Amino acid sequence: MSQENVYSASPNYWKPILFVAAPWVFVFLWSTGFVGAKFSLQYSGPFHLLFFRGLFSCVIFLFLSVVLKVKFPSLKSVKQQLIVGLFLQTFFLGGCFFAINKGLPASVVALITGLQPVLTAVLASIIQSKQLKKLQWLGIVVGFLGVFLVLSPTKLGGELSLIGLLAAFFGLTGVTVGAMYQKKAVSDGHIFASTFFQYIPLAVVMGVVSFLYEPNTPTWNAPFIISILWLVVGVSVTAILLLMFMIKNGESTKVASYFYLVPVLTAVEAWILFDEKISFAMLLGMGLSIIGLLLVHRK
């Protein structure tokens, strides 16, 4: 094949590779968001942290949109993207970061949001009248059982903050509704410009909340700067783009099933970085979660 043909065929050549690699890269990046939050919250309140995360993310996507001269969405599409951002960014991240700030382990927050496939399947079957196969339902049940085992008291070894649990489930609702609405809200603008508008609610809402309820400003030292850069570039930019790519190219229930693997990596990362223990029940739960994922995707 000539060099010209290689270049002309490159989009079709790389697309299957991207389809295969995107979920696994996303799972890793998304899992680091939970441990990154726990690390960053040593130097900042949750709402100040999310304000800067949203602000810097807006700056990056606006910069990319302007430099690359991409198409901005219409007014109708802008409204839709703001709604997506309110659920997928503001409610989800706000709930997760607040829960971790209230003492809930990063692995537990990841596990609660790992229930997203169950909630997505139920909502999809009710609202969108989607008929799931028996094996898919079995996979959802098995995956839920795995999450339950990892969330068992033998692993946690102590009482959990009620307000932290409520905040985590609030975040779960946000990311589920946001992902499903994102599937229907087809933007008529470029993905960079659309994502810019999605991060506006995060910056605005968290800016107001942090001003009203967090009198102390963040401690701007090297660890905090590095961690927030990772949360912005690695998670808010790269992981969110991968998530939207998967949502646009797959059924919402199948895309959501990848979240089963996020608690697995988060637990390992939290064990390495924060010495959060891994019990036998947790290992068994990890295995069941992976089996559930495979059943959901079995053709």
Characterize the structure shown:
The protein is mainly α and 299 residues long. The chain has one domain. Helix content is 80%, strand content 0%. α1 packs across α10 and α2 runs antiparallel to α9. The two termini are 34 Å apart.
Labels describing this entry:
299 residues; mainly alpha; 13 helices; 80% helix; 0% strand; disordered N terminus
Mean pLDDT across all residues, rounded? Answer: 82
Supply Rg. 19 Å
* Succession of helices and strands: HHHHHHHHHHHHH
- Count every helix, treating DSSP H or I runs of 4 or more residues as helices: 13
**Termini separation (Å)?**
34 Å
User: What is the tally of beta strands?
Assistant: 0
- Approximate helicity band: over 70%
Number of domains: 1
Beta-strand percent range: under 5%
Q: Note poorly predicted spans.
A: 1-10
- Shape verdict: globular
Structural class: mainly alpha
Major beta sheet summary: none
Question: Secondary-structure map with pairings?
Answer:
Layout lengths: L2 H38 L5 H22 L7 H27 L4 H8 L2 H12 L6 H17 L2 H4 L5 H23 L6 H23 L8 H27 L3 H6 L4 H13 L5 H18 L2
Brief synopsis:
By secondary structure, this protein is mainly α.
